[in-house]
């Protein structure tokens, strides 16, 4: 991670901008990823514009942060979130999306998780991060395991899907 830049490997993080409304609208309303994001209904541009405006609040106030993952050439490829930020226990949950299948398996997610861990440790001074992953999401399981997250438990029948119930795995990394 370079000094004062949220940049590592092939990617960088940046804050959400009002100009991101169309791409956020596309990502959030893609029903193929709703199961992963626990979404059950589409988002309007009005709601997303409000979300983008509210995203400028401090993480200590909003308890979450979403950053756009973009290539070094400036192409947005996904988003990464810290959620359930707990400043007393110094921990937060992690969510990540690389939206376009053509952008997957190019190292963007790996670089993003490494950068997020460094950011969470060095700037937010967090002690631990966690991720909740459906047991059949093998790519995410591999991603988090390869970045030092350990499986700490299984939530049985945690997620109701169109195909029935699925277990959710919880991974944790002490920074």
UniProtKB/TrEMBL annotation:
Residues 11-172 form the N-acetyltransferase domain. Pfam families: Acetyltransf_3. GO terms for molecular function: acyltransferase activity, transferring groups other than amino-acyl groups. This is Acetyltransferase. InterPro entries: Acyl_CoA_acyltransferase (IPR016181), GNAT_dom (IPR000182).
């Amino acid at each position: 991670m370079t000094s004062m830049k949220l940049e590592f490997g092939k990617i960088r993080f940046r804050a959400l901008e009002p100009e991101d409304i169309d791409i956020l609208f596309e990502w959030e309303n893609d029903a193929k990823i709703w199961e992963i994001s626990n979404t059950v209904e589409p988002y309007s541009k009005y709601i997303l514009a409000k979300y983008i405006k509210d995203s400028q609040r401090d993480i200590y106030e909003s308890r979450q942060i979403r950053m756009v993952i973009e290539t070094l050439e400036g192409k947005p490829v996904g988003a990464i979130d810290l959620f359930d930020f707990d400043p007393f226990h110094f921990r937060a949950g992690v969510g990540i999306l690389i939206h376009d299948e053509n952008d997957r398996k190019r190292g963007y997610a790996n670089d993003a998780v490494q950068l997020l861990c460094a950011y969470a440790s060095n700037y937010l001074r967090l002690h631990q991060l966690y991720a909740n992953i459906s047991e059949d999401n093998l790519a995410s399981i591999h991603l988090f395991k390869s970045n030092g997250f350990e499986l700490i438990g299984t939530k049985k029948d945690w997620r109701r899907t169109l195909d029935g119930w699925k277990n959710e795995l919880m991974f944790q990394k002490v920074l």
